[in-house]
Amino acid sequence: MALNDSAVLIPGTGRVYLAAPGQAAPPDPRNPVDPWSVVGHTSRDDGLTITRDNGDSEVKGTWENPALRERRDPATWAITFQLHQLDNNTMELFFGAGDVDTVGVFGVQGSAPPVERALFVRMIDGSAEAGLYVPRVSVGSDDDISVDVENFLAFPVRAQVLQVTGSNVMEWYAAGLGKPA
């Protein structure tokens, strides 16, 4: 493998987009349009975190070879980020569906289920970009709401990656990936 300076990315800006669960990836990853919509302002300081839980790993052996094979449980993935906008979209992603029947009020329900969506993340470094597409995530609160007099109000959410039968769990988009041109 050779060094490739153009394959290094510092994602100085980015956007998080959502669509209906199972929505196909945007045809143009640099310009996601309807039915994809921007989630709103997200935290620059905390960025976006992609976590992997490997599950358990176990080495299986025989009398003749005590370390013959490794067995792993499937990995699970999650994407966490903090929402800064105080709007119905943020409230729904953090609290679940709520009561929006009164102007200026989002009523939090007792135990609303997480919200399912498709997710696309655009990571931008000048003219270089990378995209991350996940066909199905379950979005809900990830931590406490942060109220800090020196920072933006923050609603941390976790997008748990869910499997869509017969498709990739996630797909990365960038120049140089996939089949050579």
In sequence order, what are the helices and strands, one letter per element?
Answer: EEEEEEHEEEE
Oligomeric state of this protein? single chain
- Low-confidence segments, given as residue ranges, are none
- Approximate shape: globular
Derived structural class: mainly beta
Average pLDDT value? 92
Helix count from the secondary structure assignment: 1
Query: Main beta sheet, described?
Result: 8 strands, antiparallel
Strand content: 35-45%
Q: Count the domains.
A: 1
Number of strands: 10
Percent of residues in helices: under 10%
Distance between the termini: 17 Å
Radius of gyration: 20 Å
Fold topology:
Layout: E1 13-19, E2 37-38, E3 48-53, E4 57-60, E5 69-72, E6 76-83, H1 88-95, E7 115-125, E8 128-141, E9 155-161, E10 171-173
Antiparallel strand pairs: 1-2, 1-7, 3-6, 4-5, 6-9, 7-8, 8-9, 8-10
Brief characterization of the structure:
This protein has one helix at 88-95; strands at 13-19, 37-38, 48-53, 57-60, 69-72, 76-83, 115-125, 128-141, 155-161, 171-173. It is mainly β.
Task: Describe what this molecule looks like in 3D.
20% of the residues are buried. The protein has 181 residues and is mainly β. Strands 1, 2, 3, 6, 7, 8, 9 and 10 form an 8-stranded antiparallel β-sheet that branches. Strands 4-5 form a two-stranded antiparallel sheet. The protein has one domain (16-172). It has one helix spanning 88-95, and strands at residues 13-19, 37-38, 48-53, 57-60, 69-72, 76-83, 115-125, 128-141, 155-161, 171-173.
